[in-house]
């Protein structure tokens, strides 16, 4: 819950009898055990209100991966060192042998397979959409938030409906450009270079039922140099991914994300 401490507005700040259309979001009950406090300062319409966040228990995070899981590793590291008030309780993958799954097992994090594997030694293993939702909503792998970290499959509508405004993805390009089905990994960076764009960077957005179309939460910008190869650009963007994604996940866990009436999410910075 955000508790507002009244602050005087700047002399040049516009006044209005209507409150700013901002709704804080948290999955935790006010009666939950206390964990820690954060203060937030945010600028809106020229005013500088100050907020005190009620302490929360660590959020439970389910992370989806398809490959090496470098963003998952960055999030996990931030949980361990206290930058994120959360715990990774499950890792979900469509590739049971990928690096992200191996890392999870090495660190004692339960792993799940979704969707059902059709070929190879793991054929027949995996969860259906209904089983996936049931697993992530109850039991030892129950999660408050779902984080996609290089997961290449389309998320089932059932999961989107089960985690409204509680599921994030990171994309290696500046959405809404260079996104959608087929735009992932090095393909994004090749398209950026081929377009002649002078800037690129990662986008963190909420997940809906399509590829890369959910509300944008945060972006970081890097230059695109005339001599860049896709791998060089990818490395530059990835460094920023490892900064912005944990930053956004920390805000999500703290309850520092609100929503304007037009459906645009607002991230309130920690102080």
From TrEMBL:
Where are the stretches annotated Disordered?
1-37
Record SUPFAM superfamilies: Formyltransferase
Q: Which domain of life is it from?
A: Eukaryota
**Which pathway does this chain act in?**
Purine metabolism; IMP biosynthesis via de novo pathway; N(2)-formyl-N(1)-(5-phospho-D-ribosyl)glycinamide from N(1)-(5-phospho-D-ribosyl)glycinamide (10-formyl THF route): step 1/1
Database matches in Gene3D superfamilies? Formyl transferase, N-terminal domain (3.40.50.170)
Q: One GO CC annotation, please?
A: chloroplast
Q: Where is the composition biased (Low complexity)?
A: 14-33
Enzyme class (EC, first level): transferase
Instruction: Say yes or no: keyword Thylakoid present.
Output: no
Residue span(s) of domain Formyl transferase N-terminal: 60-248
| Name the record gives this protein | phosphoribosylglycinamide formyltransferase 1
Q: Which organism is it from?
A: Pleodorina starrii
Gene that this sequence comes from: PLEST003183
């Amino acid at each position: 819950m955000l508790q507002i401490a009244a602050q005087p507005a700047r002399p040049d700040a516009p006044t209005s009898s209507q409150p700013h259309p901002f709704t804080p979001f948290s999955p935790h009950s006010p009666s939950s055990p206390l964990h820690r406090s954060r203060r937030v300062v945010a600028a809106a319409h020229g005013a500088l209100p100050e907020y005190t966040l009620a302490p929360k228990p660590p959020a439970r995070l389910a992370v989806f991966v398809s490959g090496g899981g470098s963003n998952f590793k960055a999030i996990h590291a931030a949980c361990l060192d206290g930058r994120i008030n959360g715990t990774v309780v499950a890792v979900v993958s469509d590739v049971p042998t990928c690096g992200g799954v191996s890392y999870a097992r090495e660190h004692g994090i339960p792993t799940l397979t979704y969707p059902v594997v059709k070929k190879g030694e793991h054929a027949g293993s995996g969860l259906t959409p209904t089983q996936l939702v049931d697993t992530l909503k109850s039991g030892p792998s129950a999660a408050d938030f779902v984080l996609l970290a290089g997961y290449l499959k389309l998320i089932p509508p059932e999961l989107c409906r089960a985690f409204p405004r509680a599921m994030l993805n990171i994309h290696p390009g500046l959405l809404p450009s260079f996104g959608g089905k087929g735009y992932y990994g090095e393909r994004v960076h090749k398209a950026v270079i081929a377009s002649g764009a002078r800037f690129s960077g990662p986008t963190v957005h909420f997940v809906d039922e399509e590829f890369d179309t959910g509300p944008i939460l945060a972006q970081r910008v890097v230059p695109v140099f005339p001599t860049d190869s896709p791998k060089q650009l990818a490395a530059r963007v990835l460094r920023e991914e490892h900064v912005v994604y944990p930053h956004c996940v920390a805000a999500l866990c703290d309850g520092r994300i609100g929503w304007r009436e037009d459906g645009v999410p607002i991230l309130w910075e920690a102080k």
